Amino acid sequence: MPNRLTRSVLLLSTLAYTGVHSASVSSTPAQTFHGIGGSGAWWPNDLYHFPEATRQNLSNLLFSSSGLGLSSYRYNIGAGGASTTGPGDAQGVYFLQEASKRGVTHLTAFANSAPAKLTSGGASCNGRFVSGTGGAYGTFLADVIAHFRGQGVNIDLVSPMNEPDSSFGPSPCGQEGMQVLPNQRAEVVNGLYSALSSRGLASTVGILADESSNLNAASSEYSSWLPQVVDKVAAIVHHTYDFPSDSSYTSYVSNTKNSYPGKATWMSEVCCSLGNPDGSGKGWSGGYDPTIKNALMFAGLVFQSLVTAGEAHYDFWTLVSNQLGCSPLSNPSCPNVANSNGWNDGVIYYDPNYATNKNYVLYVKKQFWTYKHFGNFVKPGSQRRPIIGSDASKFTMAVSDANSYYILAMNPNAGDTSLTLTFPDAACANRAHRTSASEDFVQLSGAVRSGSNWVLALKGTSLTTYIFDRRNC
Ligand SMILES: *[C@@H]1O[C@H](CO)[C@@H](O)[C@H](O)[C@H]1NC(C)=O
């Protein structure tokens, strides 16, 4: 029979082995969430040609709460190039309307280039914004938005320059693009703001800028344009193709807040990384990985923006992609296996040869299921509650609304652990949903009570959301 000392050593080693962690949900809210979403670029051109039942299924997978439950959708205003949709194009309009019908809260119109006739090369890529055309370009964008709003599609955000740091040349280009020099960006914002104002839309349609490709480029160029137009910008949006460390991301956010008080920064685009659940190995690259490994890596990026950087809005890039890197009709299991030919630029995939082989299957990657946790449980108007205590993980987030707490908790490691959580006020376990190698958002019973605390089991290599009702049990 072990003596007292041996028993406590045994107890300690049991704790270390099972990895018990404890933390508390703060009584003080952090940021209020704005939206979770992604872009319609440029899969609507293809998916529009799929059977109507599949187009409806896709719209439900993206925009309904039975699917991702996105609260943000970015519609691409084309500039007349071959690779994009435009306001006259039925393809992009179809999915914008489906998002609108399903009540997606925020609809952004974004453009990669001004209409070809306004750019330096007379094309929709490989050229530059022409100084002096800000009014004409702003009028074009405002007309498109007014047209949609007149039809009940309430676009409430507009981004006039997506990645102005590049022209996306040389021609032929892979996508539309227009370089806008830092000292030209204020003119673009001014032209758009006055066109929106003259249509009475300046207070209902917010301008997003400048969608620089990475945080370094963004922050080093703000001083050339942002001070001139900061009052006309609704939010300062950026991409994170530098895959920043936690410390460079947080210093970007605090520097930008200090220089431009009262303006939110948020994430409007990222994709295309391999890497591990804990974020090691991440970085811009090709390669397709449909497994839990990549799905958790991308979930970690969302946690980084929302928890570590404290931002209120997150958009992934293109949502739907044909970059499977394999041919599912000749190798039916290949959409479920990683390969180096494809790209991690979507959460749902389709056959690149659909037009000839008539394969209209939608291939759902594991990242779809992890992103669904954010789409379903991080709703506009809900608030983040910091999780405090030395065991708090940067991959765990508490969200509160009037009736519920949602605890999104990721375990990037192989071993099972648990988190003992203390709430600042009444909480009673409801249910949970878990995504792991073998589970897709499966419903489980809720957390287990332990005195005045709650124990949340965190299976190895999984993302679980525990839901609590804000009442006493
Ligand atoms: C929608 O597509 C998904 C993914 O391919 C599939 O599992 C599901 O059965 C489809 N639903 C309908 C109603 O077609």
If you had to describe this structure to a student in words, what would you say it looks like?
By secondary structure, this protein is of the alpha/beta class. It has two domains: 4-29 and 383-469, Immunoglobulin-like (Sandwich), CATH 2.60.40; 34-377, TIM Barrel, CATH 3.20.20.80. Helices cover 29% and strands 23% of the residues. Strands 10-9-8-6-4-3-2-11 form an eight-stranded parallel β-sheet. A six-stranded antiparallel β-sheet has the order 15-17-18-24-20-21, with helices on one face. It has a five-stranded mixed β-sheet with strand order 16-1-19-23-22. Strand 17 and strand 18 form a beta hairpin. Helix 6 (185-198) crosses helix 7 (215-229) and helix 9 packs parallel to helix 11. The longest helix has 17 residues, at 134-150. It is globular, with a radius of gyration of 23 Å. Residues 1-17 have low confidence and may be disordered. 2-acetamido-2-deoxy-beta-D-glucopyranose binds next to loops.
Task: Please outline what is shown here.
The chain is 29% helix and 23% strand.
Please bin the fraction of helical residues: 25-40%
Name of the CATH first level of the largest domain: Alpha Beta
Q: Which regions contain 5 or more consecutive residues with pLDDT less than 50?
A: 1-17
CATH-defined fold name of the largest domain: TIM Barrel
Q: Please give the largest β-sheet.
A: 8 strands, parallel
Count the helices. How many? 11
The structural domain count equals 2
Number of beta strands? 24
Q: What molecules are bound to this protein?
A: 2-acetamido-2-deoxy-beta-D-glucopyranose
The average pLDDT score comes to 94
